[in-house]
Amino acid sequence: MKFSLVERIQNDDGANGAAPMASPQIAHDAALLDAYSRAVVETAERISPSVVFIEAIKTFLQPGGAPARGRREARGSGSGFVFTPDGFVLTNSHVVHGADKIAVTLSDGRRFDATIVGDDPGTDVAVIRISSGRLITAPLGDSEKIRVGQLAIAIGNPFGFQYSVTAGVVSALGRSLRSESGRLIDNVIQTDAALNPGNSGGPLANSLGEVIGVNTAVILPAQGICFAVAINTAKFVAGQLIKNGKIRRAYLGMGGQNVTIPRFVVRSQQLKAETGVLVISIEKPSPAERAGLQEGDVIVALDDAAVRSVDDLHKVLTDARIGACCELTLLRRSQKISLAVVAQEAVV
Predict the structure, then answer these.
(1) How far apart are CA 69 and CA 252, in angstroms?
(2) Annotated catalytic, 94?
(3) 3-state helix, strand, coil in the chain (%, to 5)
(4) Catalytic residue flag (residue 97)
């Protein structure tokens, strides 16, 4: 018969009538330890069968190399998890982006070739698919319900050590993380559950065995500062990738940088913010050129949304603005003017 740590302490009442060895505080701590262990074990047992090991191969030609002799392969690996019974797997974009061949190994040892359904470098989320039956799916949670300090359990394949489990807590919510495409990923979860190369794309789960995030990055050489894309973001992106193969975003065709606006201009023009986006280049042809935007203009709003930075401009250029006539508010030689612009769909 097996006993928990609490039961062993409570039964150890001191042989031959001796005083009990365990104080109430020790028994309380032991109960917490048992509860913590059970939560981690049960979550790992529930989620691990859904976790996959991903190997990606990218073929490229060396500069000046002949096709036959200059061909080289770059290999990488990461993690992912099955989230639908028909073989859709969620992972990070940077794990599979540009790969010519993808192999997926399930927890039971079965190995399959996978195809990319779609990937979005802007949120570092990708969906791949395998053709297999008898798949175990990971239950997806609601990242809006998580709280700072709650248990966070990461499962993945760090450095190829498959199906490794680490545990920690949710350290912070609402973080922003710069993706490889340069866009900001919003509502990122910060955790101290240890992540290493190879964990990318694996699930971050709560104590109920629900996936609350997709592990994506660590801060080096810091210790215990790791990040996961919130599962609500991943669910939205995955749905769009399955439907369209990509995330549609609006495009103006201009280059810009953040700039501070003099306070007297802010007051005289009744602006909402003291910063904006300075236009430093305009593509030809582009919606920006057709609208009459000029280098040196400072964009301060798009429709009713204030534009304080390049990141703000990215946020408001959603698919809803593709083909729609928008009002661009800007400063031109300290005077506020408005231009009508029709954004087009960005080509990735």
Answers:
(1) 42
(2) yes
(3) 25, 40, 35
(4) no
Residues 183-235: tens digit of each pLDDT: 888 889 999 999 988 899 999 999 999 999 999 988 877 788 999 999 999 99
**Exactly one of 77, 93, 94, 143 is catalytic; which is it?**
94
Predicted model pTM: 0.78
Torsions phi, psi for 174 (to 5 deg): 70, 20
Peptide bond into 49 cis (omega under 30): no
Q: Give CA–CA dist 274/291, Å, rounded.
A: 24
For residue 94, give Cα distances in angstroms to 125, 143, 200: 8, 22, 8
The residue with tokens 């040196």 is 296
Nearest to 317 by CA among 249, 256, 257: 249
Q: Report the length, in residues, of the chain.
A: 348
User: Which secondary structure element, helix H or strand E, spans residue 29, and what is its range?
Assistant: helix 24-47
DSSP 18: P
Which of 164, 171, 200, 309 is an active site residue? 200
Active-site residue identified among 120, 124, 297, 312: 124
157's enclosing H/E stretch is none
